[in-house]
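Appendix B.2, paired examples.
Example (i):
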Amino acid sequence: MNAPKIPTETLIPQSFSTIAQAEDHLLAQVAMKQETITAQRLEHPLIDQSTLTGMVFRGDVFSRFEVTDTIFHNCTLVNCDFDGISLFRVRFENCKLVGTTLDHGTLKEVTFVDCDLSLTNFNEAKLTQVAFQRSKLTELNCLESTLKQCQFSDCNLDQADFSATSLKHHDLSTCRFDTLRVTDWAVRGCRFNDTQAAYLARLFLGITLA
């Protein structure tokens, strides 16, 4: 998985609010810090080769949001609607995305590290080489989505819903959950630890292991 390609030595400090004033709604090679953006609506905003630190987005609606080669650090993106989002080589570090919608999104080479994605929606999305590391994914919704070469490492997946999403060739063995919503055929070829396998045996076969 490739890291975001950012010319950090030449980034220009910039306010996110200027994106609404730009004709093409583009912010490129800029550094944004410590702003709060609330209930803003934007059509097809683009962010490229930039960093966002300590930014707060609440209840924003960004249609066809595109982000490339960008790092979000200590950011809050809560209850936002990013339906149809496109993320390519993007990294989220210690970010909160609780209740945010990324339905119908396309994510490739994206990393979430130490993030809270509780109640986040990835329904009917395409996730390719997406890594979730030490993150909270409780009650996450990922229904009828396509996952390819994704990583789930030391995450809390309790009550996450992967209904009708194939987990084949994926590894959830280092993650934790008491309840996981999955479709029986969709867990074939997925790697689980012994405790998780016992839960699935009870769920689908009514078998209780001694």
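Example (ii):
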Amino acid sequence: MKTMENGHPSDNCTAENLPLYNFYASVMIMEFTLGLPLNLSVLYLFIFKLKFWKSKTNNIFLFNLVLADVLLLICLPVKAYHFLNGNRRSTEGATCKAMLFMLFLNRGASIAFLTVISVDRYFNVVHPGKKNFAKAFKRSPHISFLIWLLLLPLTIPTMLKSFECCNSYGREDDTLVEDVTDTLREVVFFTQILIPFFVLVYCTVCIVNRLKKKTVGDSTKLRRAVFLVTSVMLVFSFCFLPCTIARMVLLIVRVENLPGAEAIVVQVFDGLMVLSYMDCLVDPIVYCLSSTKFKSLYLTTYCRCLLSENVEITESTISKGNNSSPKRNNNILLHSM
């Protein structure tokens, strides 16, 4: 195996196990092929059918979640191309930094909007009588714009040096500036996942407990609501936690100077990062299509032949729903719990 002078395999950007990385590339191509049309079709509905900017619900947050997934999916063919050519990343510095910027910005946006949606749902279900900051902003794009703006500086540490390889963390000859840069990059990576995870755990537990105690209401809607909040946790745990754990192990074996173990962990980490991109494929299904009304709108628009007469809804019904009052319109998507 090729290594650099310092003996750290993750400093070598060559994909040594080419068949394995060809498989990773195939998975990313599959994610792109399936995920892009699905996300674009949902994006079309938000813009031309639901007119999300006029919505009184959290459609603006959902629109930005889908938008972040689309922008992330666009990066996957480039990354797959590098894997197929035996490289873990682009050999050109500008292309590598541009890819890191897009991947981490849009991945972070996807996690951020997922968390904001869950927090908003938490207040609406657990504390329906209390006003909260999410309600104050969800009727305008201001909070969405703020999230994108705050994520921009968080991508800077990942662009100072290549994150996926040529990572100098753990070298004995690092300068103070290099140590600070590497540490900041790792802090950003872990906090971007761990903090939202704990927020999601808290919100999900509270929502499930609240819904279990509710004895009045449609039991079918209650079961659907429990399914929605628990699927948030399942998707997040499946897509993001494995690569976080692998990153922890990679840092440990690197600091302990175990090149043999590191060579294996690097390949596992790259594979689990590919798995994390699966989030773009399942987000529209879990957070959008699980709503009965949105699912009916989706099928009416794209798969009319699959609908029976008593299930089909017309476009005029949707447009009326968009112009109705907040109290009557607050069930169109995730508030249909």
